[in-house]
Design brief:
mainly alpha
């Protein structure tokens, strides 16, 4: 298959990265329905024929962007949080997470909207995630694991529920990201740091 042959070449791998970069930008800006392979190819500085050497169609490209780009560094940073347990205050680390979560969810929103608008595409994405052990649950699990580690160190109250606390923090960040994307930038009346501080202060208040 063309994609497999292309993937064997370092030059082709760089071309694939250019296509994914362009697709991610165009799809986020215009949405899946309005993102054409012609526009993606133009943004990448390539021909449509080159694009089709790497991806079967626009849906294949979209699913690859969802799989390879959306987890980004945010989930990776969450996965490394447990190793940082005891190295800083719980409050400071949670503020760091909250400040990073809002822009992450804002970047995620256009892609999620496109996926939910097409049930067949969403089902393919879910199957792909299930087969690889990936999915949105990883962020929640990683944060809950970190909070559990802090609790075992005595730095988080015994009555606290790590999984619930993680869900409340990430849920609030997701809602803020959604509202900003839905109603406009005027809702970003506080800096990310201010929002994170107020949220974490509330969650950890006695």
């Amino acid at each position: 298959m063309g994609t497999e042959r292309a993937a064997a070449s370092p030059r082709a791998q760089l071309t694939r990265i250019r296509i994914l970069d362009a697709a991610s930008a165009v799809m986020s800006d215009r949405g899946l329905a309005n993102a054409t392979t012609k526009e993606i190819a133009r943004t990448a500085g390539l021909s449509e024929a080159t694009l089709y050497k790497h991806f079967q169609d626009k849906e294949d490209l979209f699913l690859t962007v969802m799989r390879e780009r959306l987890p980004s560094e945010f989930v990776g940073r969450l996965a490394g949080l447990t190793d940082r347990a005891g190295t800083s205050t719980v409050r400071a680390l949670l503020q760091e997470v909250a400040a990073d979560a809002v822009p992450f969810y804002r970047d995620l929103a256009p892609m999620l909207g496109a996926a939910f608008a097409q049930p067949d595409l969403l089902a393919r994405h879910q199957q792909m995630l299930s087969a690889t052990g990936l999915g949105p649950h990883l962020a929640l699990s990683a944060l809950a694991e970190y909070l559990g580690a802090e609790q075992r160190l005595g730095r988080l109250a015994e009555r606290a529920q790590p999984h619930t606390l993680a869900a409340l923090l990430l849920g609030a960040c997701f809602q803020r990201a959604f509202l900003i994307e839905f109603e406009g930038e005027h809702l970003a009346d506080r800096s990310a740091a201010e929002f994170a501080r107020d949220l974490v202060d509330t969650l950890l208040s006695e």
